């Protein structure tokens, strides 16, 4: 009988090259380089800043109380890293665009705006951002072999100009978000599983993969007696890695990753232009994001709610004025109305964190293996400030970030840090070797006290 041999390429790829077109499994796993869950990034953008006095936590690094506007996140306090003392100096002194435009253009790029003719607040000279955004940089650098390199989702963004873009492929290269959840569903799950319902198709894909695992196991068992002791150790380690992947795909840990790895139910189509439907649209997009991450269709997601300087209406909160107008009401009633909006956005983030935390991945969850960055384009809304930004991290990126702490860089007379350094810290946590990000004049290195 002819002996079966496994080539080096076949060994490294573990026969999983046959599944290259299947979106749920990354090629890095296929090479047996990692049996743990991959790291993910989610950016959660909400507009029009905050009320600093109502946003910043109170207390010390390890003994702190979440502020009124952050109370909806209390169930996830142990997995949070609220930050104080992060400035966006890269756009503070620019004379191009309003603070809203400058802020959103520099949020993920760490660079100032180019000159253009977009209107924003009292300015009419704003252009697009002058650099690549963090999400696209990570995709270019890490080259995830998921079906979608990145996934840009929007919730009634509407504005096609600089105020409505947070993602950039490079200077002057804005990337529009997907605002239609029905189209997003088709793109994600129909592309992954053409001609089948998502649940049935994903079951089929798992069956195909199990078949591949079985074939590989048979081949390794046949070859193992004929190789040296050192190679046998390497082969056993490789097979153990493969078994770990198989268990995760089969859901042997009893978590939600098996039953939850399917496209969400969309229900009846709703009017995407009606402001009153923002909660329903947002929930669909968040469900889509969680499912895409759980199914490994992508590892990098941005979720953008409305646009900078948003004039969205919030009838479900019993508010009559638009968001931007309310953000500039300095009286007690205006601040109470604004707090309603911000608290509601915190509730939406809590919903997303709960979805991510419901997927078990070994002894962690999808949230644990993700870093979620909550951002907005300005800080104190009444002042259009771009310093002491209300930025918050959730999840530890697979144990990199030490969560459950309030990191206050201004405590005890401390010095403010730059948001470019925060972007660099996240890039390194995701696996890059970058030493700078964005405008190097405003990036001095990774932030201390986070990892």
Structural summary, described in words:
Residues 1-20 form the signal peptide. This is Secreted protein. Pfam families: HXXSHH. Keywords: Signal. This protein has 451 residues and is an alpha/beta fold. The protein has a domain at 37-179 and 272-442: Alkaline Phosphatase, subunit A. It has helices at residues 8-13, 27-30, 52-55, 89-92, 99-106, 134-142, 181-192, 198-223, 229-250, 256-260, 278-294, 323-327, 332-357, 419-430, and strands at residues 40-45, 58-59, 64-65, 80-84, 86-87, 113-120, 123-129, 151-155, 167-168, 174-175, 300-305, 360-361, 364-365, 370-375, 392-394, 407-408, 417-418. The strands form six sheets. The chain has a seven-stranded mixed sheet, sandwiched between helices. α7 runs parallel beside α11, α8 (198-223) runs antiparallel to α9 and α11 runs parallel beside α13. Mean pLDDT is 84; it is low at 1-34 and 244-259.
Let me know the number of strands: 17
At the third CATH level, what is the topology name of the domain at 37-179 and 272-442? Alkaline Phosphatase, subunit A
Instruction: Determine Rg (CA atoms, Å).
Output: 23 Å
Uncertain residue ranges: 1-34, 244-259
Q: What would CATH call the architecture of the domain at 37-179 and 272-442?
A: 3-Layer(aba) Sandwich
Instruction: Give the overall shape.
Output: globular
Lateral strand order in the biggest sheet: 8-11-1-14-15-4-16
């Amino acid at each position: 009988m002819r002996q079966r041999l496994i080539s080096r390429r076949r060994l490294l790829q573990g026969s999983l090259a046959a599944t290259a077109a299947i979106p749920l499994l990354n090629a890095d796993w296929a090479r047996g380089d990692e049996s743990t869950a991959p790291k993910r990034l989610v950016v959660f953008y909400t507009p029009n800043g905050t009320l600093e006095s109502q946003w910043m936590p109170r207390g010390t690094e390890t003994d702190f109380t979440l502020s009124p506007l952050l109370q909806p996140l209390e169930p996830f306090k142990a997995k949070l890293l609220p930050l104080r003392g992060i400035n966006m100096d890269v756009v503070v002194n620019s004379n191009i665009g309003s603070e809203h435009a400058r802020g959103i253009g520099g949020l993920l790029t760490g660079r100032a705006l180019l000159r253009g003719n977009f209107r924003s607040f009292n300015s009419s000279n704003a252009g697009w951002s002058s650099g690549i955004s963090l999400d696209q940089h990570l995709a270019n650098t890490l080259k995830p072999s998921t079906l979608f390199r990145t996934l840009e989702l929007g919730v009634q963004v509407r504005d096609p100009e600089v105020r409505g873009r947070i993602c950039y492929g490079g200077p002057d290269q804005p990337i529009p978000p997907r605002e239609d959840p029905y189209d997003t569903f088709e793109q994600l799950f129909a592309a992954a599983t053409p001609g089948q319902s998502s649940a049935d198709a994903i079951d089929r894909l798992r069956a195909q993969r199990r078949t591949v695992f079985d074939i590989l196991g048979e081949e390794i068992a046949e070859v193992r007696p004929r190789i040296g002791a050192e190679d046998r150790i390497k082969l056993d380690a490789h097979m153990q890695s493969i078994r770990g992947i198989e268990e995760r795909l089969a859901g042997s840990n009893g978590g939600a990753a098996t039953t939850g790895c399917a496209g969400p139910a969309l229900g009846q189509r709703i009017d995407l232009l009606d402001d009153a439907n923002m909660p329903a649209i947002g929930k669909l997009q968040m469900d889509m994001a969680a499912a895409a991450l759980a199914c490994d269709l992508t590892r990098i997601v941005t979720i953008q709610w409305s646009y900078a300087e948003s004039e969205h209406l919030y009838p479900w909160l019993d508010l009559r004025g638009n968001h931007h107008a309310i953000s500039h009401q300095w009286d007690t009633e205006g601040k109470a109305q604004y707090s309603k909006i911000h608290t509601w956005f915190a509730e939406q983030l809590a919903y997303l964190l709960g979805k991510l935390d419901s997927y078990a991945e070994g002894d962690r969850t999808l949230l644990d293996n993700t870093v979620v960055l909550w951002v907005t384009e300005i800080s104190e809304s009444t002042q259009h400030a771009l310093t002491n930004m209300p930025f918050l991290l959730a999840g530890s990126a697979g144990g990199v970030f030490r969560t459950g702490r309030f990191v206050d860089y201004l405590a005890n007379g401390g010095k403010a840090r730059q948001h470019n350094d925060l972007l660099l810290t996240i890039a390194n946590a995701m696996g890059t070797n970058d030493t700078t990000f964005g405008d190097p004049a405003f990036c001095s290195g990774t932030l201390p006290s986070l990892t």
